[in-house]
Design goal:
The complex is a heterodimer of chains A (about 180) and B (about 190). With about 180 residues, chain A is mostly helical. Chain A is built from five helices and no strands. The two termini of chain B are about 15 Å apart. The radius of gyration of chain B is 21 Å and the shape is flat. The chains are: A mainly alpha (about 180), B mainly alpha (about 190).
Chain lengths: ~180, ~190
């Protein structure tokens, strides 16, 4: 398994696991931190990737890892939402909310609402996790030009090709009066 | 070598992690930025559409929008801005973050060239932008001072706008890292050149 996939799966599992808790209506306070969890999950995935990566990670790497982690996490959270909404939560609570919103629960599909809410939440979660991955690289990568650490060493000079016999130094071609190379 | 890079051939950079970097066609960067800006605008408009839909009797659409954002924000009415007599779909701080982010994405090409957007800004700018939001939250939490909707939204807007300057380069960098996507455009570019 590649480093990128491994980091994304772990980050996604964290996002999905923590976000799955938020679909339980009996635990309201954890909802406040849900947006943070999506960002933290993406950042965690980026951190894990950076830790194992032999070369400095780019911000593009962070975006890809955050995106993958977000997809994994959003799928887990969506599955949890469906399971809790259809098998655990008392449907009458939801119907009360629909009634309070001025709608008639008889004419409004409970399943459709859950599906649309889940879909929109998935999109937001993936976007937040993507941002988290990018922020993770910006914060944790200190080796390369994306971080604020020491810049990488310059590449080695190219090997000389046809350098001539040893001891004979390279001399630039003579220039004419206009500064151009003489023919 | 410079011309070869411009035509989209492999550039030998020592900073790439696993994939070879391409120098993409400038129009690819504009396309990526445009898509990002459009999606961001669509997203922030949902925040405003929710109360407007509720005010105009589209209860079902409003219900779905409020319910969706409920997972990402506390939606306390006292801490939210109002449109058409109803609170926005997210609180004042989140509103600031999302609208600040949208403004950052929209004005990105004015502040920084899309073609020279790599690398992303140094991390200190992110930490500096985060500081007012953290202070605003912490001082209120500790009871030292009472924050307002304005301070919450402004500190959030600063954070969101700065985050955009990390996100746009990252999305443009994804294009540089995906030769398969850009190669077809590079071939056209090469033919034009």
């Amino acid at each position: 398994m590649s480093n990128r996939l491994r980091a994304s799966l772990i980050g996604g599992a964290v996002i999905g696991g923590l976000s799955a808790v938020t679909v339980i209506p009996q635990i309201p306070f954890v909802r406040l931190a849900c947006c943070i969890w999506a960002i933290l999950g993406g950042a965690l995935a980026a951190y894990l990737f950076i830790k194992k990566s032999p070369v400095p990670a780019r911000v593009g790497d962070g975006a890809i890892i955050g995106l993958l982690a977000g997809v994994v996490g959003a799928l887990i959270a969506f599955a949890a939402l469906l399971l809790v909404s259809f098998y655990v939560t008392d449907r009458s609570l939801y119907e009360d909310q629909i009634r309070r919103a001025g709608m008639d629960p008889e004419h409004f599909s409970y399943g459709l609402i859950i599906f649309l809410v889940g879909l929109l939440s998935m999109i937001v979660q993936i976007a937040l996790s993507l941002v988290g991955g990018i922020i993770g690289v910006a914060l944790f990568e200190s080796r390369g030009i994306d971080g604020s650490g020491t810049p990488p060493p310059p590449p080695p000079p190219p090997a000389p090709v046809d350098a001539g016999p040893p001891g004979e130094a390279y001399a630039p071609p003579p220039l004419d009066q206009s500064g151009q190379e003489a023919p | 070598m410079r011309d070869e890079e411009k035509r989209g051939r492999l550039s030998s950079t020592s900073l790439t992690s696993s994939t070879s970097a391409f120098i993409p066609h400038p129009s690819s960067l504009v396309v990526v930025w445009s898509i990002t800006a459009l999606l961001t605008l669509a997203f922030v408009s949902l925040i405003v559409i929710a109360p407007m839909a509720l005010a105009h009797g589209h209860n079902s659409a409003a219900f779905v929008l409020y319910k969706s954002f409920e997972k990402f924000c506390h939606q306390i009415p006292e801490r939210s801005f109002y449109v058409d007599g109803h609170p926005l779909a997210v609180c004042a701080r989140c509103t600031g973050i999302y609208f600040g982010f949208a403004a950052g994405v929209l004005f990105y090409p004015v502040v920084r060239s899309l073609a020279q957007s790599y690398p992303a800004p140094a991390r200190r700018w992110l930490l500096i932008a985060l500081a007012p939001a953290v202070l605003d939250f912490a001082l209120d939490y500790l009871g030292i001072w009472q924050n307002t909707r304005l301070t919450r939204s402004l500190s959030g807007a600063l954070l969101g706008s700065v985050v955009a300057f990390y996100v746009v380069p990252a999305l443009l960098d994804m294009i540089r890292m995906s030769p398969g996507w850009s190669r077809s455009r590079e071939t056209k570019y090469e033919q034009e050149v």
